[in-house]
Amino acid sequence: MMGEMKPIHTKIKEAQFRFLMETTTDGVWIWEVEADQVVWNEKMYTLIGLPPQGIEANLERVQSLIHPEDLKKYQEMIDAALETGNSYELEFRIRRSDGQYIWVLDRATVLKDNDNRPYRMMGTIADISDRKYNELWLNGQKQILEAIAKNAPLQETLSLLIHTLESQASELFGSILLTDLPNNCLRLGAAPHLHPDYNQAVDGVPISEGTGSCGTAAYRKEPVIVENIATDPLWKNYKDLALSYGLQAAWSVPVLSLQDQVLGTFCFYAQSPSLPKEKHHKRMESATRLAAIAIERCQSEAALRENEQRFRCLFEEVPLIPVQGYDPDLNIFFWNKASENLYGYSPQEAIGKNLEELILTPETADYLRQGYHNWITQGIPMAPGELIVKNHKQESIRIFSSYVLLYNAKGKPELYCVDLDLTERYQQAEKLSELSTRLKYLHRLSTGNYQDFEELFAAYLQAGCQLFRLTTGFIANLNQEIICLEFVQSDLPLKPGMCFKVSDTYCSEVVDHQETISFGKIEDYPKLKEYFPYKTFKLESYLGTPIIVEDKIYGVLSFLSPEVRTQPFTEADREMIELMAKDISRFITDHHQELKRQEAELALRESELKYRSIFENISQGIFQSTPDGYYLSANRFLAHLYGYDSPESLIECLTDIDRQLYVDPTRRQQLKILTEEQGIVYDFESEVYRRDGEIIWVSETQRAVLDEEGNIIYYEGTVEDISARRQAEEQLHYDAYHDKLTGLKNRTWFIDHLGQTIHAYQLQETGLYAILFIDLDRFKIINDSLGHLVGDDLLKQVAQRLQTSLSGIHGESFCNLDREIPKDTLARFGGDEFAVLLTSLSDPQEAIAAAERLVSLMRTPFRMGDYEFSLGASIGITLGHHDYHSPEELLRDADLAMYQAKGQGGGQFVCFETVMHPRALARLQLEHDLTRALELEELSLCYQPVVCLRTGGLKGFEVLLRWKHSKKGWISPGEFIPVAEEIGLISTLGWWVLEQSCRQLQQWRAEISQGLEIVLNVNLSLLQLKQTNLVEQIEKLLRSHHIPGDCLNLEVTETSFLETSQFDASILHELKALGLQLSIDDFGTGYSSLSRLHQLPIDMIKIDREFVDGIETDISKEAIAQTIITLAHNLGAQLVCEGIETPAQCCKLQQLGCEYAQGYLFSRPLIPRSATQLLKHPHFQQAINWSSCGCSVASK
C-alpha cells in the first residue's frame, strides 16, 4: 500500500508544483544538476523578454545573461549552496533580450538525494529594478551633495553624477558640457564613458541652432530630443562623427541657473535609435538640478576666491593708500606696502609691534586708544581726521586717517586705519601761495604804463633779479649761430648790442634743448666752465628759458649770478621765468603785428591806387551791376567796348541791361542763375548790342558779392570782346565740315548728316533715303599725266557741275522729279570721290533717275585751256532701310556698288545687292594674294610668236604674264591685271616682267646664238613711263644682261601715249636712243589725237583684236583696219594684228598690207621650254606651216 501510495504522492506534489509555477507572479527556475538542464516557468521567460520555451537553458546559458560585475558573486553563491545544501538570497543584474539589464532578487534552495548529493536546485526570480534604482539614485544623490559640500573639484562631482545616472540606465552614456560665454560655445565638463576622441571633437561646439542636440538645447534653453542622429537635420554637420562612435540617439537638456542663465547641458546618448522613457525624463530633470547646484557652487567659490585675492592684492599692493590693522591694544597685525612707503617700516618690521612704538606720539596714541574703546563698548564710530605722526626718521608727517571696525572669525574686534599723506598737499599750498604772490607781481609788471620797450623790459629784468635772487639778467636775440644782447640788467660789463657765439654761452643749452635750463653751481654742468660766462665772469648759477615768437625761438631770457645757490631752483622758479618769457613773447608779437598792420595799411593804399589805375587803364571791361539790371560802376574800356563815351554815360543810358544790352534778353537771367548756383561763372559768352546797333560777341566772368546773411548785394566781373575769336571759331567749324579745294561739304559732315538721317528714319519710319557714291573715271590718268594743278582745276569744275546740277534740278530736267534736291546733300570724300545724300524719296526710282542724270552729265567733256577731257563717272547706289544702323554700313555697300560699276567698264551706275559682299571679300583676298605672288614664285612668263605675213618668218614673241595660284589654279590676266593697276602693284610687276624677259633673251643668245635676231614685245605701264629713272633702269638691264636694245620692243597702250606730257615724250626719244623699239598697243580704242601721234617716235602700231574679229565679213571693220594700216604706213610705222584665229582673217590682213600678226591661228602662248625648242629648230624661220593656215607667203 505504501509502495502504491508513494507514486501517487509524488504525482500530487508535481501537480501542486506545476500549479505554483503557473500561478505565481515571480519567475521560477529549476536546475537539474546532473543533466545540466534549466527549466523556467512562463513568468521567467516574460521577465527575460523571451517567448515561452524561447530557449533551451543550462547553467552556462544562464550565466551568460548575468552582468559581468555580478557574475563572480553569483558563481560563488551557487558553489556554496551546492556544497552546503543551504538556501540563499542574492541580488544581481540580468540582461533582457533587448540588451537592457534589470535588477532581480534570486531565492534558491538545494534538493539532495539519499546519498546527500545535490540533484536539483530550484528558486524564484523577482524584478526589483525600481527599488534598486531608487536606492542607487538616493545613494548617488547623497554622494553628489557631499562632494558639493566638500568643494570637491567640479569635474569630479560631475563625473560622479554621470556614473550615478548611467547606473540607472546601463545602455546609455552620459555627458555634461559647460558654457563658455566669451566664446559662445560649450566645453567638456564630464563624459567618463564616451570615447576620448569624441569628447575632444565636441569640445567647443557652438551654441547655436543646428549644432547637434547640446548646442541647440543651450541655444533654445529647452530640451532637444533626437531619436535618430542619422536622419535628424540638427545633426547634419555632426552625424558622421557621432555615428562613427556608435552613437545613434541623443537626448539633451539645458542646465539653467536660478536666473535662467545657461550653465551647460546634460545629454544621454543611446546606441540605437530610440526615445527616452518616463524614468529617463525624471532622471535627466534631477540630474540638471544637481549639475546646476554643483556648477553654481563652483562658480561662487571661484568668484569668492577671486574677490578675496583681488582685495588682498588691493590692500597689500596698492602703492598710494597706506592701510594698517591693529587690535584694541594697538598691536599691529596688518601692514601693507603703501604703509612701508609712507612710514619707512617693512611689514616684517611692523607686524607684532605696538603702533605707539613706531609712529604715534603719546597724544595721538591716547586719542586712538580711547576712540577704539568707545567704538567697541558704546558703538560710537571714530571720526576721520588729520593727525600728526612720525616716520622711521622721526620726522613729523601730517596725515588724514579714516577707520573701519571689523570682527574676525573668533568674534574679536579689528580696527583698520586708512591714511592719506597730506605733507605734499601742504607743501603745494605753500608753493601756490608763493606763486600767487609772484603772479600778482608779474601782473603789475605786465599791466604797467611804459614809454617804450626799453623801459618795459628793464622792469622785467629788474623784477626777475629780485625774484630769483640773481645779480644779472638779459634778453638776447638769436640769429642763427649768433646771440646778441638786446636788454641788460647787470653790474657786469655787459651792454646791449654785444654779440657772442651761441655755442660759447650758457644759452646754448636752452637753444639745443628748447626748454628751461637751470643750475645752482657750475659743478652741475662741468663742461660749461670752458664757456665765456664762467671764464670771464665766474658766473656760477643760471636760470634761462627760450622766448618763442610765432612758433620759433626768438631769443633767450636769462638770469645769472657769480654766487653758488644754497637752495636749488624750484619748479615755481622755472614756471615764473617761463611766464615772464611768454609775456615778453606777447609784447614782441604784438609789436611785430603792429608793424605788419602798418605795412598792410600802406600796401592796401598802394593796392587801391594800383587797382584804380588798373581799373581805369586795363584792356578789359570791368563792372559792378545790381540784380535789378543796371550798372553801379564800369571802367572806361567797358564803356568804349559798348560804344559809350564814358563810364558815366554807360551807367546813365543802360538802365535795363537784360533788354538794352543782350541780343537774347534771357541771357542775363541765365547768367544770374548760374552765378547763384556756382558762386562764380567763367567765360559766359553772349551776343550784345553796341550803342550804334552793331552786334558783337563778349565773354563775361561774374561773381556774386554777398552780405553777412548770404543775400546778393551786387555782381562784379569782367567783359572781353571775343568777336574775332568767334569768327575764327566759325571759320574753323566751316573748315572742319567743308572741302578746302571745292568748297563742298566734306566726308566728316556727310557721315554726321547721314547718321542723323539714319536715326530719324528709324524713329519716324517714314520717307525713303539713298546715297550715291561717285567715282570719276580716268581722272587718275589725267592727274598723274598733267600734274596736280590741272587735276585740282578739273575737280573744281566737276564739283561746280555737280553742285549746279543738284541745286537746279526741277521737274522734267531730273527725270520728272517735282522737287529740288538740297545742295548740301553733296559732299567730296577726297580724291575723285563724291557722295550725294537723297532724303524724303517717295520712290526708289527717284534715286536711280538721279544717278542716270549724273552719269549723263559727266560724259560731257571738260575744257581746260588747250585741253579737252572726257571723264565719266561710276556711281554706286545704296537705298536706306532698317538693316542699316551706321553710316559706315551704307557707305561700304555704296562703295562696293561703285566698284561694280567700274568693273563693268565705268560710265554707269549700279544699285547695291547683297551678293556683292562675297565678291568684295573675294576681291580683297585676290589683292592680298597678288601682293605675295612674286614672293611665292607663282608668276611666270609665256611667249606668243609674232609672225611676218610677207615671209612667214618668226619676228619674235609677245611676252605675256601668267599667274598660277597655289590653291585656285590659273587666274586670268584680265582678272588680276586691273587689280594690280588699282592697288599700285602694276609697276612692280612690269619691272619683274622686263627683267625676266632680259634674262630669257640672255639665256637664248647664250644657248643658241649671240647673233640671234629675235625681238621680245614687253608691255610698259603708264606708271613705269612716268618714273624719272626709267631710262637709267632699262639701260642698266640691257648692260647687265649683255643684250642690244633692238632686241626689245616696248608696248605702250594708246591711252598711255595720249596721257604723256612733253616731258614723257622726251623720255620716249631717250629710249629710242638706246636702240629700243616702241609700239602702240590696242590701237583704235583710245581715240588718239593725230596731232599728238605724229610727234611720238613710234616703230609699230598693234591693231586691237576688236577690229580683227569678223573683219573677213564686216565691211566697216575692214575699212577701219585699212585706215589704221594706211595711217601707220604714213607715219613710218609697221602694223601687227593680234587675235588672228582663222585663215580668212589672215588672208584679209595680208591683202590690206599688214606686216605682222599673232594669234591662235599660228600658235598659242608658249612656255619657255617650248619657245626655246622653237628657236632651236634648224629652220625656225619657216617653223610656221603656212599651208595649214591657208595663206601664201612670198618666197625668200
TrEMBL record:
InterPro entries: Biofilm_reg_signaling, EAL_dom, EAL_sf, GAF, GAF-like_dom_sf, GGDEF_dom, Nucleotide_cyclase, PAC
Every GGDEF domain range: 767-914
Residue stretches making up the EAL domain: 923-1179
GO biological process: regulation of DNA-templated transcription
Pfam family, one: PAS_3
Every PAC domain range: 88-140, 682-734
Ranges for domain PAS: 13-85, 307-379, 607-648
Protein name from the UniProt record: Diguanylate cyclase
